[in-house]
């Protein structure tokens, strides 16, 4: 195994030292396929500059200016107050020894010497509790507590979490969909909240970092990021997060809140595409920035440990390029440098998620993934702002060596750029050979047994000591 790792490392060193970046490939997160009715034309997450944006309209020539006719002054529309300016990053120094540490011949990027990076440097292997509490719209169920196992086939057990810890994971993201468990005023079911709390508290008792979010709640009746639905989006955001913040107010700082998962214009041509030149997307971005601000304000207002708890926010649909664009800004925060930027990355989608795509992870695929880390580092990490890749992964296409190369490479990039990564695991395992859609499972939920030993080892390895 050491000889094999050395060979992979030599190839990686040559790859990283190369130049040029391939065009970004469209990518689609696994949640978009969880109900399998998604059509192929929606299987694009990243905006590809070579593909015209389907939502752009042709330019309209403005008419020549004319002298205005005399008329009574129109009534002034009330002007909405602008969002507060984001916090300026605090001054900091780089940890100089990181600039001299190497990994496979590549120098580890310097990281800021501040409290936020001291915090995230404690994170090791990360994994999602996917398809459990995030299951939604299971209309065939009569008991809401059956949602937890409706998609993944198993209830979350202490034995499973123990297994995660024993394997070296210490970062657990717990996606939760709330809209099927609220009354018309968005009050959360006590029984549902108690069950989520039980799992979160057990993971915290094992000294894990735990992330709780609003997951599949992007819907016009709940959270929908556009101006037409802004009032209701802000109401849902505030109502849900006030309840969650109060419920978890006294938990340690190992608990992180994440505002929303993949906020987007659902069921439109722009759902999985980001374009800074599209009016609908720009309108969505403005609504999302306001929702992020409402999330931060609501959590901070509940006091206790929430006064300076780490909070995660994202750009449009968690797309990396949308988050590094000039359209994205961090919300104002009364706590100093306690905002973490969150993105997702399944790249290239043809390899990572497309059942009809490629199965080889080679030099082009490595460069594309490295570009994601590099852009996030340049925009945020180098300026003292922490980043977490909250979802990443590749499905099982009966290509074990390429999958191993992918997870090892992602682990190495995470170490090089000090960006923690959290693998998507939905408890779907390919046992029949060939290609299986949504096959992101690594550890059996029911038993806690490891299914893919080499991949789990790659996710939890310590790449830089």
Instruction: Please count the helical segments.
Output: 12
Average pLDDT, rounded to a whole number, is 83
Pairing-aware structural class of the strands and helices?
alpha/beta
**Helix percentage:** 25-40%
Biggest sheet strand line-up:
3-4-5-6-7-8-9-10
Q: How much beta, percentage-wise? A: 5-15%
Per DSSP E runs of 2 or more residues, the count of β-strands stands at: 10
CATH superfamily: Glycosidases
Q: Kindly identify the CATH topology.
A: TIM Barrel
What sort of overall outline do the alpha carbons produce when their principal axes are compared? Answer: globular
Query: Any idea what the radius of gyration is?
Result: 22 Å
Give a quick rundown of the structure.
The protein has about 475 residues and is α/β, with parallel strands linked by helices.
Describe this structure in words.
The structure is a single chain. The chain has one domain: TIM Barrel (Alpha-Beta Barrel), CATH 3.20.20.80. Helix 5 (190-205) links the parallel strand 4 (169-174) and strand 5 (209-213). 31% of the residues lie in helices and 9% in strands. An eight-stranded parallel beta barrel has the order 3-4-5-6-7-8-9-10, surrounded by four helices. A two-stranded antiparallel sheet has the order 1-2. By secondary structure, the chain is an alpha/beta fold. It has helices at residues 2-17, 115-120, 147-150, 158-167, 190-205, 230-247, 279-301, 320-324, 349-352, 363-379, 400-417, 453-460, and strands at 102-103, 106-107, 125-128, 169-174, 209-213, 255-258, 311-314, 339-345, 387-392, 421-423.
